[in-house]
Every structure is written in C-alpha cells, then in structure tokens.
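Supplementary Data S3. Sequence and structure tokens for construct A.
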Amino acid sequence: RIRYRIDGLLRQIRALHKSYWPAMAVRIKVVSNMNIAETRAPQDGRISLNISGRLVDFRVSAQPTIHGENVVLRILDRQKGIVPLDQIGLDDSQLDQLKLMIARPEGIVLVTGPTGSGKTTTLYSMLNHINEEGINIMTLEDPVEYPMSMIRQTSVAEAAKLDFANGVRSMMRQDPDVILVGEIRDADTAEMAFRAAMTGHQVYSTLHTNSAIGVVPRLLDIGVLPDIMAGNIIGVIAQRLVRKLCPHCKKPYQPEPHETRLLGLASDAPAPTLYRASGCEHCEYQGYRGRQAIMELLRLDADLDELIARRATMRDIKQAALAKGFRSLAEDGLRRVREGTTSLEEIGRVVDLTERM
C-alpha cells in the first residue's frame, strides 16, 4: 500500500498487489543511489528531481521487514522558503522573549520536540533572523535540508568520520560566530557544543524531550554537569505541530462544563465560542487543513540557573518558571483553541491535558 503523511497523520492513497512492489522498490533504490542487491540491512539515500520547474529533494530510507522492504520518502521542497520569525506561531510576548534569547552573543539555544514537530523550521527561522554580512554562521546537519544564503552548511558523513562532535571541533577552527549543531545525541557532541558556548560562540541545537524543562534531566543523563548547564543555556523552545481547522467548514459550539475547566475559565465566566472539525471538499472531508506550531519558551535567568546548578527537581524548576510567566505547551495549545484555529480534540491528541481535568 502507498500512504501519504498529510498534516501529521498517515492516509492510504492506493493499494497495490504485492507482486508490483519489488520492481518499484528497486527503481526507487536505483535513483537514490542505494545498493539494489542489499535487502537485509537498512539503507539511506537521496533523490533530487526537477518537478514543473521546482527543485525538490527526497530523503529516502529503506528498512527490511518480515513482509519485504519498507521504503519511506521524505519531501524537502527547497522553494518553500524560510519562515520569518514573526510567522512561526508565537504571540507578541513569546516573540519578544525569543528575540531576547537570540540577542545574546554567546550560549546555547535548544529546540526540543519529537521528529516532525517543526524543529528545523524554527532553527532556520532563527538563523535567518540573525543572518547578516558581519557574522559567520556555520551549520552541521544530518543532512542539510534547505540551503541558506551566506551560511556555510555541512552534512555529517559517517564515511568521512565527520560526526557531530568532530564536526563542531573542526568548525571551532573556522572562526565562527554562530554554530548550529543538528542534534545533541551523545556526551561527545554535548561537550563540544557547551565548549563552543563557553568560548564566546552562539550555539543552536536540538534535543528529543517532551518539554522545555525536560532538557535538564536529559542533559544530565547524557553527562553534562549542572554547573556547565547553568549560565550557558540561554533558553529552550519545546514545540509540537497541531492541525488547523478548515475555515470553510468548522462548526461553532458552546463548550460543556468540563471543557470550560480545561480552558481554565471560572464556572461563572461567559463561555467562549469554540469550534470542532466537520469536513468539506476544501479539506477533502478531513475537517482540518494545514498545521501550526504550539510552543513553550523557557528563558533561563540567574534564579533558574541557580536551581539547575544545585540539582533542583523538575517540579521546583517548573514552579519557578511559572512564577516568571512560563506557559506550557498545553496552555499555548488552548490559546489556539480559544482563537478558533484548532479544536480541543486536536490539542488533546498532541499534548497531555489530563493535569487540567
């Protein structure tokens, strides 16, 4: 079967008899420069095609299964362009916080979230915002997804023994002002990223954690000392992508009492009008069309640095952050619900709302 991931969910487009698949898999492997004789080990490749005058790249992954090879193609459309910082989904207060974070000349900014949550889009948007003739920006990615003007981009290469840690070590000799490390995966990469931050560089990278505050135990688990974290992490952005309600068919309704509680409204407060998915020809009867980001921003200061340095619990760090105006993913998602751009059901699919019940 052939399935497309549209707005974050898989949708079957066509079913084929299994006898057709081997020839199709071989053709895909040929054009992506894979070994067609190897069917028992995972392989990765890349395809570049000119489609109606547009240059589109495909990252290809082949994985053996008990039913044959499974092939996944990830589309990288170079002409999509970089999203401006004020269009990535932040409200005015969040945008101001982010601009303060990236105005710092040294330290680490981390973007966290699962695969496919828009981390690369956010990173590129921040780099584009600070990109100017007077600074040297270098990136190390796995692989480079979108080329950017005036930025020196490098793909990691196992064959050349260029991993993230070695790549950062090499970049430090290239007189960079800003370094983007695609992902902090291990202790060596973390050490080099923090070393770069401690020697006057601005560093951007990603981690896989469930929340912004979850970065602290994750880095501890990797082996980063609390004293190293404190003072060197500028801020953390955690994000998810949620589907947007189709503007042509979304249906208004008045929330039930339990939904009002989820929104954090008092029982005697006037209930806002919410919207739920319906379905029409504009959205292919899905009820949703397109996606938008929900985010939580944790900007670290002296008080939070002190808590990290003395190994405070996640709960204590979160309480201190909340006192400073920190807003969680759930709260940012509910903001989108109140705006009418998405539904409670969609936010509940993406983030945990049980604590608010």
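Construct B, processed identically:
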Amino acid sequence: LKFNASDAGKTVVVSYQGTGAIAGPNALGLRCQKFEASGTFVVPPKVYTVYVTMCGGGGGGGRGSGYYGGGGAQCWIKQPVSVTPGDSITVTVGAGGTGKTSSDGNGTAGGASSFGSLLSASGGASASGAAGGDGGIAGQVNFVGSIEDETNTYYKISRAGSGGGCILGCGGHGGIYYGMTHGSTPTASGNPGGKYGGGGAGAIGADASNGAPGIVIVEW
C-alpha cells in the first residue's frame, strides 16, 4: 500500500465478514477473496502478484497436571506471492486442534494452512510449554491466590493455562478452579481459541478447549 502526505489524518477501515470463500472489493479498492474453508483460487486475467494473509489452526488445549493451553498458529500478513493468470491454486485452511478430553494428556496440533505450494502457515502445537509455529507460547498454570477458612482448611484458587495467541486471534482464557488442599480434586475448563488461529485453553479435571480454525485471504 502507498500513502502520500496528503493522506495524513485519514482513516481507512477494512472489514471481513461472512463464511466460506467470498470475493469482492475491500475498503481500499483491492479485490479480495476470503477462505474460511478449503477451496480453489483462480488467478484473474492480468494479475501477476497477489497478497496473501493467512494463519494455521490453533492448537488444542491439554488436560491434567500441566494445565497447558494450545499454541497460537503461525501467521502471514499481506505476503506478496507471484502468480500466473489463469492458474488454479489449491487453498487449504487449517482446522483447529482438538482439546484433550476424558483423560489427561495433550490435545492435538492445529492444521497448517497453505496457498498451493507458494506459501504455508503451520498450526499451533499442543504440548507442554510448546510454541505454535511463530505464534504465541502455550499457557501454563498461574496461581492467583489462596484463602483460609475458620477451620484452617486451605483452598487453592488457580487458573488453567490460557492458549497462545497469534496475530489474527487470541488464545482462549484458562478457567478458574479451586479445591481444598486435602479434599476433592478441583476442576476447571476454559474458553476455545478466538478467531483466527488462537490456541485452546488447558483444563484440569474437565475437557480442554479446541483451537480456533485458520483462514486464508487473497488480495490483488
């Protein structure tokens, strides 16, 4: 994009809405096609360069003693890609990873997004402290306080790990949980990753959250 001194003070707003692959001009006058599901991009006539924004799917949250959230996905913002008019390019949108359920352990990693073989963005990982692509780092347990009642029984108040964020989406917030030091096992589940590519929150004694799916946006 090119701006001149005469453009100072002006505000430009770009908004993408809807689902699936949608083509049309954006607020800057560029043509664009948005993919929230995998599909095919056909290069228009006389177009030799497109600008691709994409991210992979966020990693699913882990469940159990680690309380780890899924990693945020790798992202590209308006990356220039050389193309040939008339070519059909396969667009893959990475799915969000699945949060761990039923038993303790890691969730699954998010899927990679790609624009043919020309550009790709890895999905977020789901492992103890693992990073997702070049995105956010998985959350870890964060103790936020404790209280004592009249019988001197201590209660722990903690937060399960939040998912890592990426440029296009925030990680899911870890759930608050509490339990007695000598008592029942506390439970907590958090929120899924935010659009697009955010990691899912970790959990203890409950199902962990899923990562958010990726996205691919092509402009020319």
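The chain has one domain: 23-220. The CA atoms of residues 54 and 216 lie 4 Å apart.
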